Amino acid sequence: MLTTVFRARKRLAYEATLSVTVELKENEPVAVKASLQPLMDLVKQDLDETNRIILDRMHSDVELIPTLARHLIAAGGKRLRPVLTLGSAKLCGYDGNRAQKLAACVEFIHTATLLHDDVVDESDLRRGNETANVLWGNQASVLVGDFLFSRSFQLMVEDGSLDVLRILSTASAVIAEGEVLQLMNVGDINTTEESYMEVIAAKTAALFAAACEVGAVVADRPADECTALADYGQNLGIAFQLIDDALDYSAEQQALGKAVGDDFREGKVTLPLLLAFQKGNAEEQNFWTRVVEDQQQEGDLDTALQLIQKHQTLGATFDAAKAYGAKAKKALALFPESAEKEALIAAVDFAIERAY
């Protein structure tokens, strides 16, 4: 179903998950809290220019467009995807300004998908703030998302590289396919691990992979380095989404400005729920079937949290994320040691340790 270039990565993602979804002790201690700051420091000047480009390209004579777009872009977040583009370019020795525009392009693609996602999911909050669809309505959010997608393609064309256009346009198509597949899986307790991994490889990891790969492309690096950075981004993106899905059932979610149980209320079958269903007895499986496919009642979220804790499926999900994090780090092995490489490795640890 997904675009061909991502099929092999999706299959590897599924197989790896099957091998690591085992029970772990919850809340394993972490000695040192990882940080994204080393990477942020290395790309600071480039990121400042990227932010300037973002603000400039959000401009429109239609006043609602920059107002709504600015609301989401200014709401917070660490610009992880554009930072990965800039960091990957630096890892490859690139010192020009193409990466700055492409980082802005990546952020526009990401922001557009967030606007569309919030409409589809009927979300009220993002990073603790009211979503654009709550403030301005679904129609405005969808149309401004379309505007940002268009801006991203303008930036791709300005760059002039067919390879860049191929990578980012393919990622955009795959993201849309992933979102549609996720929509098809909502309310289906028979969703498989393979289908679940197919969704997150597409809707999240595809843009991580593309963001990193174009950093090598602008540096005119050989194919093996481009592939290595794409693999790094793909595995990092899967790890990132696995942690997000686990956090939906974790108290840490509140610290991130999100409500606990949003995925549960929307009937999304993510890995913590899927594993709890698989490990549950007949009575528990009947519960999961009702709350996913039929009707939820008051107190169901508390029951769900108790069952997830009983079967330690958050631990299994965290372990799956760690496995993908290890694969992301391994993908950087062909690059020589450098501050940039260390910072990209630290970014993997940061993505995973958000859960602790």
Topology:
Blueprint: H1 7-20, H2 37-42, H3 44-57, H4 64-73, H5 80-91, H6 98-121, E1 125-126, E2 129-130, H7 132-136, H8 138-159, H9 162-185, H10 193-218, H11 223-247, H12 252-255, H13 262-265, H14 271-279, H15 282-293, H16 300-310, H17 313-331, H18 339-353
Antiparallel strand pairs: 1-2
Helix pairs in contact: 1-10, 1-17, 3-6, 4-8, 5-6, 5-10, 5-18, 6-8, 6-9, 6-10, 8-9, 9-10, 10-11, 11-17, 14-17, 17-18
What does this structure look like?
The protein is mainly α. The chain has a single domain (4-353), classed as Orthogonal Bundle (Farnesyl Diphosphate Synthase). The chain has helices spanning 7-20, 37-42, 44-57, 64-73, 80-91, 98-121, 132-136, 138-159, 162-185, 193-218, 223-247, 252-255, 262-265, 271-279, 282-293, 300-310, 313-331, 339-353, and strands spanning 125-126, 129-130. The protein has a two-stranded antiparallel ribbon. Helix 6 (98-121) runs antiparallel to helix 10 (193-218). The chain is globular and about 60 Å long. The two termini are 35 Å apart. 48% of the residues are buried. Mean pLDDT is 86; it is low at 4-8 and 10-31.
- What is the class in the CATH system? Mainly Alpha
Shape: globular
Number of helices: 18
Structural class: mainly alpha
The main sheet orders its strands as 1-2
Q: So, CATH architecture?
A: Orthogonal Bundle
Instruction: Give Rg in angstroms.
Output: 20 Å
- How many strands? 2
